[in-house]
Structure formats: structure tokens, C-alpha cells
Design a protein that fits this description.
The protein is mainly beta. The chain has one domain. 0% of the residues lie in helices and 63% in strands. It is rod-shaped.
Length: 98
């Protein structure tokens, strides 16, 4: 009988950055939060299924600020990016090889 073997490994990577530009009263806040999850819901002698999820959230309080554009006059960036990947592997054995 096949016995499943579970594997789960999450990784969280938050980062924040704050910068004050000379001549502007509003600081610029930006940040990126990343998550990476590797999950193997099924693993036995001959086959396995691997799932991978990657997500990223990007925050920018003054998107498009330039020396001639005040940070108060810009838009706020709030973007999300996601990627999902699945991989099924099956190795050959004496019953599957002819």
C-alpha cells in the first residue's frame, strides 16, 4: 500500500524602505512582501507531486515621484503578483518499462 509523505516549507520575506527627498514634505514609503511555499502532498517510491506557490505584494506610497513632481501629487502603487507551479514525476520501474 502506498504511504503518502508530506513536505511543507514556507518562506516569508518582508522588507520596508522609507526615504525622504530633499525639498518635499512627504516621505516615500515602499515595501515588498514575498512568500514562497513548497509543498509535496504525495511522495512514494515511484512518483511524487510537488506544488510551488510564489507571491509578491509591492507597495509604493509615491509612485512616479520625480524631482519636478511632488510625492503628494503622485499615485499610490499597490500591486500583487502570484505564480503557481505543479510538477508530477513518475520514475520507471520493471513493471512500467517494456
Amino acid at each position: 500500500m502506498l504511504q503518502p509523505d508530506y513536505h511543507f516549507s514556507p518562506l516569508l520575506l518582508p522588507s520596508r524602505f522609507r526615504r525622504t527627498l530633499g525639498g518635499f514634505s512627504a516621505p516615500i514609503d515602499t515595501g515588498v512582501n514575498r512568500v514562497l511555499v513548497d509543498f509535496t502532498p504525495w511522495l512514494d517510491q515511484h512518483q511524487r507531486i510537488d506544488l510551488l506557490y510564489s507571491g509578491q505584494h509591492v507597495f509604493n506610497s509615491a509612485q512616479g515621484a520625480m524631482p519636478n513632481v511632488s510625492p503628494e501629487s503622485t499615485t499610490r502603487g499597490n500591486d500583487n503578483f502570484s505564480q503557481f507551479q505543479a510538477l508530477w514525476r513518475r520514475s520507471l520501474n520493471s513493471t512500467t518499462a517494456v
